[in-house]
Structures are given as C-alpha cells and as structure tokens.
Sequence to fold (594 residues):
Amino acid sequence: MIRSHGKLTLIAAAVVCIAILMAIFAPLVSPYDPLKQDLSSLLASPGPTHLLGTDNVGRDVLARVIWGSRVSLIAGSVSVAIAVVAGCFLGLIAGYSGGRLDDVVMRVMDAVLSFPALVLALALGAVLGAGLSGVLITLGVVYTPTFARLMRGQVLTIRTREYIDAARLLGAPDWHILQRHVLPNAAAPIVVQASLSVAFAILAEASLSFLGLGIQPPEPSWGSMINAGRGYLQQAPWIVFGPGAALFLTVLSLNFVGDAVRDALDPRLRVRVRRLEIK
Amino acid sequence: MGPLILRRLVATLPVLFLVSLGVFLLIHLVPGDPVEAMLGESQDEVAKTTLRQELGFDQPLYIQYLSWSGRLLRGDLGRSVRTHAPVLEDVSRRLRPTLELTIFAMCISLGIAFPVGIISATRRNSVFDNVGTAFALFGICMPNFLLALLLIFVFGVRLHWLPISSFVDPLEDPVNGVRSLALPAITLGLALAAVITRTLRSSLLETLTEDYVRTARAKGLVESAVLRSHALKNAMIPVITVLGLQFGTLIGGAVITEYVFALPGVGRLVVDAVFSRDYPLVQGVVLLIACGFIASNLVVDIVYGWLDPRIRYSA
Fold:
C-alpha cells in the first residue's frame, strides 16, 4: 500500500543517513554537552542560542536529541540483530530437522507470540531491570519468533528442491548444506523483515524508556525525554515535541526504506503490484 | 464447524501449557533472590521467610510449578505482595475501565477505517486515496504516547475542550464519561484505524480485480451492490485476521494510554506491579492477558471457517 515513490524514498533514505551520521558523530555535531545543566536558562524557548530550547534543568534539547539518536539506533539495530540470529538459528534447525524438534521449537515460538509484544517486554523488563542491555535482550526475545517462523517456512520450501537432494547425494554433511545452500537462498525475506522490524524496535525501545523501563535519566533517550517533558507540556512543549519529531521522522523514514528494500528484494510482490497498476 | 473448533482447541492446549510455564519461570529469572527484590530494603527476616514459604520457594521447582498450576486451575492466580488482595480481584476491579476504553477505541477505529479504506480502494490514486494512505502511514509510525501528549496539548492545554486525566465511568455518567474517555480512545483507536485502513484497502483492491467482480459488473449490477454483496465480504478475511491480531496491540496500547491519562485500568495495574516489583501480580495479570490473546486468536480462526467454507472443510 505504501507505494515507494522514488522521491519520498530518497528523502526517507536521506533522513535515515542523517540519523545514522548524527548518532556516530554526536560528540562532534552536538552543540552542547547533553548532561550539562545551565541553571540560568531553565525552560528557555527555541532560539538562536538553543535551537530546540532547554529543559527544566537547563539542558539543551537539541544536544539531547542528537545523543538520544545513538540509543534509538543501537536499540533498533542490535535488538533486531539478536532476533535475526536467534530466530534464523531456531527456524533453520526446526525446518531442516522436522519431526519432534520442529514441533517443540515452533510451539515455544507460538507461546512467545501469545503474549502481546509490549506486555511481554514489560514482564521481561520487570525481571531483567531497566537499562540498555535489558531492553536489547527483551526486544530480541520479542522479535525472535517472527524470524524463526519466517526462516522455517523458507527452509521447508528450500529443502525439497533438487539442488538440496543433489548436495545430499554428493555426500555433503547437513551443516554444509545449511550453510552453503539453504541459508543464502532463504536470506531475502529475512533481510526485508529485518529492515521493517528496525523501525518497530525503535518505537518499542522508546515506549519502554517512556514507561521508565529503558534508558535511565539523565542519559538521553527519546522516550525518556518525552516522559520527562510531559510535566512541562504547558510551559515548554518543545521538551516533548523535539525528541517526538525526531522519533516520528526516523520511524517514518525507516518504514519507507523498509518498503523500498522489500520492493527491491521480493520480485513476486513487485510483479503483483505491477499487475495491479496495469489493471 | 465442529471438527474445526475441536482441532483448534486441541492445538491451543500445548501453547497454554508453555505460556503457563513461561509465566511461572518469570519470577525465577529475577537476578539474585526474588524475595529480596520484592521486599526491597526491608530487613525483616521473618517477613522474608514467610513470603518465601507462601510462594513455595523452599520446595523443588517442579513441585512449585505443579502446585502453582493446580491453584491456577482452581481459579487462584495468587495474591499481590503489596496489597495482599487476590490477583483476580485486583484485575476484575480494573477490567471495566480497560474494556470501556478498548470498546470505545474499537468503535472509533472501525468508524474511521471502513469509510477511508473503501474510498481509498474504490478511488485509487485520487486525492482521497493519497490522504487515506498518508493517514494510515501517520497512524502506524506515530508512537501512542506521543499522539496522547499531542492530543492533550491541543485539546486539553490549548483549547480546554476535553479533560486530560480524570476518569468518569460512562455507564454511571454518560456525558462526562464519554468526555473523559474521548482523548484516550482517540489515542488508542487511531493506530488501530491506520492498520485496518491499510489492510482493508489492499484487500479490497485485490478483490476488485477478481473475475467474479467483473462478472457482477457485466451483469449490470450497480457499483454499490457489487461492492456490498461481492467485493467487501470477500475482502473481510484479512481484515478479521488483523482485528484478531490487533487485540495484542490494543492491550499494549492500553498500557501506555492508561499510564499517560492516569486511567485506573488493567494496563495501569501492570505498570504499577512492574514498578513495585510485585511479581505475583505481574505473573497473574500477564497470564490473564496472554490467555485473552490466545482466546481472541482462537475466535479469529473459528470466524475464518464460518466466513470461508474452504477453510472449514480443509480442517
């Protein structure tokens, strides 16, 4: 449905690049120290000195938004990477071995999927505690079943192909077949799903930080900044809407980029879309 | 329908067992001693020993699980460490505001999604379609808590049209009740509306290209009748799937919405239980929510069979 209009996708890709560069070069591009309090300019409105204003203890909002991009992008990419590795491993062994192991692995994945994502994240956050590592593990667990199911589905199709039979007849061991033949042929949908999942993982991290289970203040993270600013919505709405705009734009752009990756890597979908365009 | 329902019910049993096992083990994942974590700074050894015995921590793990699941089957979800009230009592007290909020949100989302989705699909590539597409994208990418604060800022702080953090039960005072739930329900409903709009539009677009729709048009049926009698009914299957799956999103959204608007619902209860490290309460509420999610997926599966005879017979 979200048609990958060329120009919009380019703009979205530029926004994602800017966010990545901002996260990498935060110490160079940040106008102020994100933790430094300036008690002479509390709740200062946006202006030439502080482009996005200051918060209730005089910290520059723009500097905190820039540093906060690090947390968001790390949380988004690392948690999805954990889920990709764990999910692909489980999906591979379940799909390739079949039988009882397949049943057990997939029932466990079904059980994980039986929890609403945020509720599971909250429950795991409750036991693992607040902080970046807790968030990464929590989101990794939440997204693992998606990749396990996807990989298993791919493996079930691929393992019946003739080139797999040929490799078996030639005496190739299972790990070699999995590594050389199954994995490369199953990778495309995983890449597509991963590119779309990063945006939702960033949203999930922000939600956990907003609830106080993610990155702990005074460290800057978009979710916790928005939570801290909601008490000052009347006097200083920029404390909420600065990081809010950064979060919304990043997620929106990642969605566009994810759709473009899907269009590029999934030829069946491209054909279907083209057929619809013609009709 | 009988074999389909039976098959789905049997398939649910191992998942229910694994969910209960996962929720039971949750408390054992706490680093260190969970009793120390729950009682915090309290140095009272007697209280710690009593709680340890109450939770059965002095017994082997499998005995703990068997007695915990036995209590579950008798409807005993345990007691809150803080209030000592039964978990089920806490949840049932908080259920009404959450149900009212989710029903209100669902009405808003369906009220928006159906007209927008149908117009977007039938007037493809028009201005309406582009606005509908942009709305869907906005709703999906907008975090719940940010939308809530945006609505509070505009309608509560600037315009003073709606209350921002008081809960009035709509069944007791309908006017003020609806006013108090308006902003939370819009917050929760908009994201759902976006997902349903997106699904309905793409499903209807596919259906409108089917041969039976062309035949209906060729027979001279007016477009509204084609849409109502042929296209829309067949386009509903993916929409119902999404509606079932969105139960989880609604509950997750309710957690944040109730937190922002200070509503006394189940979502708020989870957050409070997490922060007070009341693990038996977390376990009980999470288990109930997961069972609700499993039940909603079961209902969706059964509705599939009712809507599409092919699914019924393949079961």
